[in-house]
Amino acid sequence: MGVRRLLSVWTAKIISTACRIAGKQGVTLAGKIALKIDPNVLRDLSSQVREKIFVVCGTNGKTTTNNLLCSAIESEGKKLVCNHTGSNMLGGVAAAFVLAAGWNGKIDADYACIEIDEASTVRVFPHFRPDYMVLTNLFRDQLDRYGEIDITMKLLDRAMKMAPEMKVIVNADDALSSFLAIESGNPYVTYGITERVFAEQDTHEIREGRFCKKCGSKLDYEFYHYSQIGKYNCPNCDFTRPKVDYDASEIDMEHGLGFTVEERRIQANYRGFYNIYNILAAYSAARTAGMELKKFDRVLTDFNPQNGRMEEFQINGTRVILNLAKNPAGFNQNISAVMEDERDKDIIIVINDNAQDGTDISWLWDVDFDRFREKSIRSITVSGIRCQDMRLRMKYVDIPSELIADVESAIRARVKDGCKNLYVLVNYTALYSTRGILVQMKK
Predict the structure, then answer these.
(1) What is the CA radius of gyration of the chain?
(2) Per-residue DSSP letters for 141-200?
(3) Backbone CA torsion sign across 431, 434, 440, 442
(4) Which of 46, 123, 125, 435 has its CA 20 to 30 A from that of 257?
(5) Angstrom distance (rounded) from CA 309 to CA 75
(6) φ and ψ at 24, to 5 degrees?
């Protein structure tokens, strides 16, 4: 068995290196091959983690939350395994461990922080039992892959039952996530924002969790933060927003993002209200595990969003922001983040419909693109495999757009003749190729 583990690790490392040389990511492939050679390699390597294993699940915010949590733990002087790239299915999880192993087939890690696709939890948990799960939120996502949100909740419920001692760090402001954590029987702690942040509410936004999962009644909301995220209770049964253990208050978005939790002021030079939840989730997870986080401010200052999560590039005098937007809730929050920037800006929207994206792109009609009807939006360019569909979607909200199907050509055009402030919003499979284009252009 030791020989098979070594062969598994060595082969994965060689495949990963070859893919990088060829300009491919190759992480998932390396993990899949490693499991083929030694089906027990993930179980064996994860058992070598000296302290605790975290997993991060949820529809939106997994990668940013997981990477922030990794950075926070590293600031405590700990060694860890982390799938930074966001490869979060079984192959990607296996790759995180085999690529972190030495050539001797052993892991030198105090902690592991692993992002896991919700539907993949039931495939990953037989290999190891996490100590903590961070549950960010649950939204409708890729209907042809996941089906309705109830299917995702059932899969997560099965996974939680596989690890009954696992403590869940859950977003209390999401009724779906809270219900799942409460009903699972697992121990749980909560994070959230109890104070009202926005004076006005957009009544057109899609809200998935408006009905009580316990009795079916329509939930009463005191207010919404966005989508179904807010302060709620059921008028007909005992289900209500749980008491919040890590409660963010004194929210400030004038100069980056700021909030107070545990009488500690947190400040980050990020944009997008949703990132308060990502930061709060990472903070809550680390604190739940007993970490003091004395250097958390430095973590946030030094943290460089990667893999297209509000990642910034400077290309020939143009500031380019790349961000992932793969479902209605996520895209609406992207739009909010873009509109927080009051300067003139160009926008490129890239939509693909490959298998990993979900071939059903009807979700585009649930996104509030009409909010782009502002003077500060100098141009909108649609690109990618389904650029014609995206152009039609913009036509229905009376917003003119230019169609340039090739992503690189679209970016080069806007860098050449744009207003020097460019946002590139992409769905899943467009993310890595677009990022590769931007990295090369930056050079």
Answers:
(1) 21
(2) --HHHH-SHHHHHHHHHHHHHHSTTPEEEEETT-HHHHHHHHHH-S-EEEEE--S---SS
(3) negative
(4) 435
(5) 21
(6) -105, 160
Compute the distance between CA of residue 138 and CA of residue 155 in angstroms, rounded to an integer.
12
One-letter identity of residue 133: M
User: Which token pair is 224?
Assistant: 């919404």
Q: Is the pTM of this model over 0.85?
A: yes
Question: Measuring CA to CA, which residue among 31, 89, 78, 25 is closest to residue 55?
Answer: 89
Which residues sit opposite 114 in a β-bridge? Answer: 55
Distance CA 320, CA 219 (A): 41
Residue 64 has pLDDT above 90, yes or no: yes
SS3 312: strand
- C-alpha to C-alpha distances, 390 to 358, 399, 423, 437, nearest whole angstrom: 15, 11, 16, 21
| Location of structure tokens 């296996």 | 94
Residues with catalytic annotation? 360
What type of residue is 23? G
Q: How far apart are CA 63 and CA 123, in angstroms?
A: 19
Label residue 200 left, alpha or beta by phi (over 0 means left) and psi (-120 to 50 means alpha): beta
pLDDT in tens, 93-136: 999 999 999 999 999 999 999 999 999 999 999 999 999 999 99
Instruction: Name the residue among 278, 342, 311 with its Cα closest to residue 425.
Output: 311
Residue length of the chain: 443
Scan for tokens 């009376």, then name that residue.
398
